Each structure stands twice: as structure tokens, then as C-alpha cells.
Amino acid sequence: MKSLERLILPHLKSITTPLLDPLQFAYRANRSVDDAVNLALHSILQHLDSPGTYARILFVDFSSAFNTIRPALLQDKLSQLSVPDSLCRWITHFLMDRRQYVRLGKTVSDSVTISTGSPQGCVLSPLLFSLYTNCCTSSHQSVKLIKFADDTTLIGLISNGDETAYRREVARLVSWCGHNNLQLNAQKTVEMIVDFRKVTAPLPPLALMDSPITIADSFRFLGTTITRDLKWEPNISSLIKKAQQRMFFLRKLRKLKLPPRMLAQFYTAIIESILTSSITVWFAGATVRDRLRLQRVVRAAEKVIGCRLPSIQDLYISRTRRCAGRITADPSHPGHGLFSPLPSGRRLRSIRTKTSRYTNSFFPSAIRLLNTK
């Protein structure tokens, strides 16, 4: 069955991808987790560059998201996306009347028939969920609804203390979930408030289905730790700690007299991949001290391996240019318009920024890098 799913997956993608919500970043060519985080941060930082503004970010959690898909509703949504009726019927038939049981050791439960959700480990499940939630979007320009599969984030860009649009979109999201059989987990849904105003008053709390939402000082957003002050020290410290733990294995391999070439391959796959996780998001905004801490891990690995390794700075530059190149080559990317060429066509138009945190975010930094080629 998985082989058949793998044959259907690219066909279904080719039909639906042009009609997908631009702010759904999962399972699309030339899109990544970093793109979702960078665009979210760009929206926030651009907004906070104006006086009297702040942002409220709601990190939504669904309960057993993939298990709540209703095949009949999904079929209607697929039809609206111009998926052929024969394929719609096949997907509906595939999801309905599935036999399921639980095995624990030698004990096996009675089997039951279910017609809701998608099978565990199903190749099509992530894309089907993205299509199922495709019509869940924001209707107000000051509220961004960013999705990566079932990870959903609602960003309210608040001006002059007016939260009307943000709260209305939260209510719309709750209503939409109720009509589409998605269960919001109010206990795991958290909110973060980013506010750099000098004079502030306590902000009114937000409730989800009569449950108060927890206000967090930091949150792990798609693998990157975001803090309310938008500083990167906690995220970088976490990466360094993980990388240093893996250095133990590199030293063990050195003692086993593995050749430098193999040690370097191990470093690239196991340690460098940690140090550079979502590097396009945070490196430009990192402090000099944090950059030196990252480079010290690289130098320690160089001493163990006995050869030169790419510096963190060089890895950041190459990956940022590659990421920016993907975006400029994809007119459908929501960040494509930010890379606007000047009339000469030789350089890109710089983004006007007032604060260093905005200046050192991905899009302004990427444009500077591309202009210095």
C-alpha cells in the first residue's frame, strides 16, 4: 500500500500545490521550516519598527491532529481544489472502514472499524492534513496565520492597543476548528507577547474555549527557540550543549584511530548539522560572544580531527545565499517580493530598518549579502 501511496503523492502534489495557501510551508518545493520562521519574524520585526506597536503570537496545539480528519469533509475540500473525482473517491475509500487493534506483548485487543483520521505512518497523511486545513486562513492583513503541516501560529500585529482584529481571528480559528472536527488543546496552546514599548500596561488575557492561555517568555517554534525579547542566546546555548555532547563520540572515534576523512564526515553529519540548525534564522542577530562560543566548538573539533573545518561564519553565508536564491527563483514564495531589484538590475533594493534587531534579521541580511557578490 505504501508503494501505491508514493505513486499518488507526487500526482496529488502537482494538482494541489498551485492552490495551496501561500503561508502553508510544509511539503512544498523550495520551502522549508526556516522559511516559515523567517517570514514570521520578518512580519513581527517590520511591524515593531513603528512606534506604539507590539505583537501577540499564539502557538496553537491540536489534539491528535491527523486522527481527526473526516473523509467526507476532506473529499469536499479536495473537489474544491480541482482534484479529479476518481482520486477523491479513492482517498475517501482509503481512509474509511479501517480495521485497527492494539498489541501489547502477546496480548491483542479486539479490532474495531474506524472511519476518521488517517493511518499511522501513512505516506499521504501530512499532505492530506495540509489540504484539509488549506481554507483556514486569516482574513485581516494585521493578523498572519502561518502553518507548517499541523503546526499553526497566529500572529497579531497590534497598533495603538487595538486588538480587535487579532481576537476576532482567534475566535474565527476556534469556530473553524469546531466545524471541521479539529480539537484545540487549550492546555498546550501558549501565547507570547513581544513588546518593546517604554510605557506599557498589563495586556488583557486571552482565553481559548473559556480556558485561559498561558503566557510564555520563550517557545520552541519549529525547532528554534524564540524569546519575548527576540534574543538568540538561549537558542544558541541549547545548540552548543547538544554539539558538545556529540563531541564525546568524535573523541571516541579518534581513539579508535579512524582516518581524518571519516572523522570529518562524522563531524559534518552529527555535530555541524546541530551547530547550523536553522542558522539563517538566528546567526545574523547573534552577539559576538555567542558567535565565538560557536566557533570554539569548531576549533575543538579541528584539534580532534587534525584538519581545517568550515567556519560558522562561512556556513552562514553560503546557506543564506542558497536560501535567498531559492526564494528569488520562486515567484509564488510569500517572501519573493522582498527581493526587489533596483532599476539597474544589478542590485536588490535594501529594506529600510530602524532597529538593529530588524536590520540583523534574515531578509535585510540576505539582501546585503546578495548585493556584495
TrEMBL record:
InterPro entries per the UniProt record, alphabetical: AlkB_hom8_N, DNA/RNA_pol_sf, RT_dom
Domain Reverse transcriptase: 1-226
UniProt key word Transcription regulation: no
Membrane-spanning intervals of the chain: 262-285
Cross-referenced Pfam families: ALKBH8_N, RVT_1
MF annotations from Gene Ontology: 2-oxoglutarate-dependent dioxygenase activity; methyltransferase activity
UniProt keyword list: Membrane, Transmembrane, Transmembrane helix
UniProt-recorded name of the protein: Reverse transcriptase domain-containing protein
